Amino acid sequence: MSADAGVQSGKAARPTGSVKARQSLGSRLVEGVSGGLVRVFLIVVGLFWLVPTIGLLLASLRSPEDIAASGWWKVFTEPSQMTFDSYSKLLENEDITSSLVNTVWITVPATLLVVIIGSLAGYAFAWMEFPGRDWWFLGVVGLLVVPVQVALIPIAELFGTIGIFGSVTGVVLFHVGFGLPFAVFLLRNFFAEIPRELLEAARLDGAGELRLFFRVVMPLGAPAIASLGIFQFLWVWNDMLVALIFSDSGSQPITVALQTQVRQFGNNIDVLAPGAFISMVVPLAVFFAFQRQFVSGVMAGAVK
What we know:
It is a single chain. By secondary structure, the chain is mainly α. 79% of the residues lie in helices and 0% in strands. The chain has helices spanning 2-60, 64-69, 85-92, 94-127, 133-142, 148-162, 168-191, 196-204, 209-220, 222-238, 241-246, 254-264, 269-289, 291-299. Helix 4 packs antiparallel against helix 12 (254-264). The longest helix has 59 residues, at 2-60. The two termini are 55 Å apart.
């Protein structure tokens, strides 16, 4: 009786196991197909997102006559249209080349200062005890809601009084001032998630606050710091409003220089196209170079 029961139970178990195997195989196939479709969809979206950049690149490699005669996609049927003459003219245009240098002198210090000061302040608000810490932090958070347009005229008058209006220094200080509230808010919340036990163990080993910050907090906060650096770099590099008001002809960045070229020489496309492409490709290169750190910083804290 027991043997017969075992055989019957074995026969009954086989179909169930085979059904489970078939279901598992089918689910794997569905997952594989859906994953492939998702990848194809994301690739198509990425290519559509790059179409303006590709079009601007091809337009910058064509002569003004060819640009006026047809669209940039004509290059695929007539590759002989492509030439680097426009970039040669761009390098001969002192306004554009000097504006590119000014853009670097504005963007790099404004990004580094915001990252350094924001990191130190974020650590102080997260792990250091001092009078009124929470109230100071609430004040910093309150500055996030202050629009840039409200401060343009008062700060312009202040910079004119102290003699830095129209200079690169003035543009950098404005960007630093308005970039710090977000930097402090972001990094303070990230640093606050670091385990207290880890910091206390470092203090027991004799680490001071500066050593603790540079040896423990900075490596752990690298994803958030990289994300902040990307945000700040893109904002400053692509800014035109602040630079249009606080810079003059000798300190204007590439965005203002291109706007001036459009206003003065509306058909100067052989200079505008390569200049606009260079202005676009630098932020793209920075983003793609640090995209892993950016994704890590965005996802930090999502999973505990």
